[in-house]
Amino acid sequence: MSGAASTLAKARACAAGLGTESNVAKYLNQDFEALKSHCLSSGQLFCDPTFPAAPESLGFKELGPKSYLTRGVQWKRPADLFPDPQFIVGGATRTDICQGKLGNCWLMASIASLTLNQEILARVIYPEQSFTKDYAGIFHFKLWQYGKWMDVVVDDLLPVRSGKLLFNHSADGNEFWSALLEKACAKVNGCYEALKGGNSIEGFEDFTGGIAECYELSKAPSNLFNIIRQALSRGSLMCTSIFGSASEIESVTAEQLVKTHAYSITAAEEVQVGESRVQLVRLRNPWGHKEWNGPWSDNSSEWDSILPEEKAKLSHSAEDGEFWMAYSDYKERYSMVEICNLTPDTLANDQLGQWAFQQFEGSWKCGSSAGGSSSHKDTFWINPQYRITLLEEDDDPVDNEVACSFLLALMQKDRRHFRKLGQDIHSIGYCIYKVPEEFRDSQNVCLNGEIFQSATVCASSEDFIMQREITARLRLPPGDYLVIPSTSQPGEEADFIVRVFTEKQSKIKEVDNEVAFTLDEQVEITEQDIDASFRDMFAKWSGEDKEISAAELKSILNEVASKHPDLKSDGFSLEACRCMVHLMDKDGSARLGIVEFQILWNKITKWLDIFQQFDQDKSGTMNSYELRLALEAAGFKLNNKLNQMLVARYAAQEVVDFDSFICCLVKLEAMLRVFQQLDTDKSGVAKLNVSEWLHLTMYE
C-alpha cells in the first residue's frame, strides 16, 4: 500500500474506533485464535516468528549475542522446567512478581500494582489461559500502545540459565503468567534489553491506557496524602522511588530502602494512636523481599499501640516485600510518587475514573513539522497545533479564581525500538498560547511565526525532558487556547500522541489549514498579442515544426537556469517537462505552440520571482520551511499532511532547488485544474470512474 493510501486507511480505521478498548487491534496482525487453532490441528506447539527464541530477542548490547550475560542462555517452555506448570496459582497477586537479571524494576512495580485491581488485571492477562486445556504453547495479553489497545501474542519459550528463568518469575516456581506478560512487553518494545530503565508510570499506562501525574515529594502539595488515598479509591495505580546518583543504583540504605528502585504504593490509611491520628502508607518492593525496618515496619512496636481490629485489618507481618510506614517518614525518605489515573475506557464501574478525554496522533517530520522549541523562532510555528476550548470552570475554585482544570499528556511513540539503532527518546515539551481575538472564529487556521512573536504564552513545560511522556495538571480561565508540542531541537523526528483529560466540558481539535488554492485566470491570448522579441526567441528554440516538445523544453529550461548563477539546480528532468507540456497543451499534440509556450513562460517567470523572494539567505535554494511560505505566495495553502508529502518528494536533505520548486508548482497546478474540471457542481468533491482514475493517475 502506498504512503498516501496507508495514511488514508489508518485515518478511516481510527474513525471507526479501531484500537479502543472495545475494539482491540491485532499486534503485527497475529490472530491468536487462528494461530492457536492451527497449532492444535497440526499437533505442533507455537513458535513465534515475529519474536523468535533467539539472541536478537534478548538484546543488542548488554544482553547482545556476544555479552557474557547471555552465555549459556537457553529457551525453554514451562513444561521443560516443571512437571505441572500453571498459568495462575491461587489468583494473581503481588507476590507473583520477582525481578530477574534485568534492570526493569519499573515494569515489575507496575505489574505488582496491577494485581490490586482484578478487573483491570483480567483485561490484560486473560486469566482463562491454561497449560492444560487446549494448550498449544501460545498465550496472549492485551496492552495499550500509544492510543490503541493491542492483542499481543507470544509463545511460551522463555530464556533460562542453569535451569532457572533469567528474568521475571513468581515466588511459586511453577506459576508463569508474570513471566509471559514480561515477554509480551519485551516483544512490543523490540527485545528484553529495551525494557531496561524507565518509569513505572510507563508500565501503568501500557496496562490501563490511563494518564500519569508525577509529584516530587519535596515540592508536594499539602494535601498529597489525600490525593494518594483518593487516587487509590478511584482504582488508580501508583508507584514511588528514591532518587540517587549513578553510583547509588539499587543501593540499600541502613533502613533497608533501595535507591533508584521503583516501589508500588498499595494502600493509604489512618489509624488511631492514643489521642491522635497517624497517616500510614503501604509500599511493596517488587523483589519480594528487602523491607523497611523503621517505625511501622512488620515487627515494630508501633503496632502494639493500635486497636486489635485495626491491626488485623492492616496485615503487616509477612516477609513478602510489602511494608507499612508513616506518611511523614515516607515523604522524608522518598523522592517522587507517580499516579496513573484511569479512564472510563478502562473501568466498567461508573463510580470510578470519571474522566472525559480525547487523543490525537501527530508526528514531527524533518523539514515540515519538526520545528523545535519556541526558542527557534524561524521554525517553531511549523510544529503541529491543537486547539482547546475550555467551557466550564471548576466547581471548587482555588483562591476564588475562575479557572478550568485539565490534564495534558504528550507522549513520543516507539522510542525503545530505536535503541537498537543507537537512538533513544527525545527531549520534549509544550507551550500553550491564548488564541488571539482575531482568530477566535477561524477554527482551521494554523498560526504562523509572525503571530507567535506577539501571542501570549499561558503555560509551558518547565523543562524539555528526555521521557517517553510528560504530563501536567493545568488551570486556565475559560477560553480558547493553542497547544504546541515540540522536541527541543528542530529536525528531531518522532511520532507522538497528545491526550487531554478533563472533568468538565471542553472542545479539543487538531488545527490544520483547510486546503485552498487560487489559480491564475487562463487569459485568452493570440499570436498577435505576443511581442516580436518573444517570437524570435520561440522561433529559435522551436525549430522547423514551430512547436516545442518535452525534450526541447528540457534543453531550454536547463539552458536558462545555467545562466542564473544565483539559482541552484540539478537540471529539469524529461518527466517534469512532460508534466509542463501536459499542463499547457490544449490541442492534445503533446507539444507547445507559441501561445501555449508564452503562457508557460509567464508562469515560470512569476514563480522565479517568488523563489528569489523566499530564498532569504540568497543561497540559490529554499529550505523546506520557506517552501511552505512560497507555496502560499503562489496561491496554494495546504494542510500538514500535504506539506509533509511535498517536502518528502521535492526536498533533498531539507533543501529545495529551483527546478524542484518549479516542478512542484507545475504538478500542483496541473492536478488542481483537473480537479476543477471534475468538480462540475463546485461542491468540493470530484467524482470519477475507474477508467478516469487510471487515466489521471497513470498519466500524472
Structural class: alpha+beta
- The counted number of beta strands is 25
Shape label? elongated
**Unreliable segments (pLDDT under 50, ≥5 consecutive)?**
1-20, 347-353
Mean pLDDT: 84
How many separate structural domains?
4
Classify the beta-strand content into a percent band: 15-25%
Span between termini: 19 Å
Descriptive overview:
The chain has 700 residues and is an alpha+beta fold. The chain has 4 domains: 21-199, no CATH class; 211-341, Cysteine proteinases (Cathepsin B, Chain A); 356-512, Sandwich (Jelly Rolls), CATH 2.60.120; 527-699, Recoverin, domain 1 (Orthogonal Bundle), CATH 1.10.238.10. β5 (158-161) and β6 (164-165) form a beta hairpin. The longest helix has 21 residues, at 594-614. The protein is elongated, with a radius of gyration of 32 Å.
Topology:
Blueprint: H1 3-15, E1 25-26, H2 32-42, H3 55-58, E2 74-76, H4 78-81, H5 105-114, H6 118-125, E3 138-145, E4 148-155, E5 158-161, E6 164-165, H7 177-189, H8 200-208, E7 211-216, H9 224-233, E8 237-241, E9 263-273, E10 276-284, H10 308-313, E11 322-326, H11 327-333, E12 336-341, E13 356-364, E14 385-390, E15 404-412, E16 428-434, H12 449-452, E17 457-460, E18 469-476, E19 479-487, E20 494-502, E21 506-511, E22 516-517, H13 532-542, H14 550-562, H15 574-584, H16 594-614, E23 622-623, H17 624-633, E24 636-637, H18 640-650, E25 655-656, H19 658-678, H20 690-699
Parallel strand pairs: 1-4
Antiparallel strand pairs: 2-5, 3-4, 5-6, 7-12, 8-9, 8-12, 9-10, 10-11, 13-20, 14-19, 14-21, 15-18, 15-20, 16-17, 16-19, 22-24, 23-25
Helix pairs in contact: 5-8, 14-15, 15-19, 16-17, 16-19
